[in-house]
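ARCHIVE CARD
Drawer: 12
Card no.: 0347
Subject: one protein chain, sequence and derived structure
Cross-reference: see card 0346
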Amino acid sequence: MALITAEKLDLGYEGQVIVEGLDFSVQAGDYLCIVGENGSGKSTLMKTLLHLTPPMGGRVVLGDGLKANEIAYLPQQTIVQKDFPASVREIVLSGCQSRCGLRPFYNAEEKKLAAENMERMGITALANRCYRELSGGQQQRVLLARALCAAQKLLLLDEPVSGLDPRVTQEMYELIGQLNEEGVTIIMISHDIAAAVQYASHVLHIGKHIFFGTRADYLKSDAGKYFVSEGSSNG
């Protein structure tokens, strides 16, 4: 059974529909890349999947025992977040807050989980560093570790390589691909179609062209051929 299924989904904001009749599903272990032109509704779709924005039509169904609190979300970073004055360890640990309930402290199990995810992201040596002193790539690794503390099953990423240089971008794509290989289901928005689809198992393209299917079928489709070649020529 699918982890997430979108049925006849209409997306929009302020009463304006921007995408109509979206149907797709995400199975455990999938790596779905959501692509499309600017303003096509990618971020609105992400917020709808997270139940932060209600759909204008249709519905999102969680299946396979997935609960809303088992979905981790890494939004686009804002300037305020980049300047956050806390240590790396504190930020990663804060991903465990929902596990604490009314407890005002983190227990040994939560501290162990934070340490494991810092190790996983290669940032153990940065544990006591102030977050705002880190490079953009290091900050994204910290936020990924935090998201993994919040939930292990499904990770939603909104433009996780935005503003990073090409080398660090490649490292981030490889890191996310590795998480997928370890069993984390990935749903990622990317504006960089040519690079992003290298790692995806499935592609959802929204906008004037709508496509949902495997990466191989996308690369054979008219939309895939056009947008991937455009991305390659612009890169």
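Annotation on reverse: The mean pLDDT is 88. DSSP finds ten helices and nine strands in the chain.
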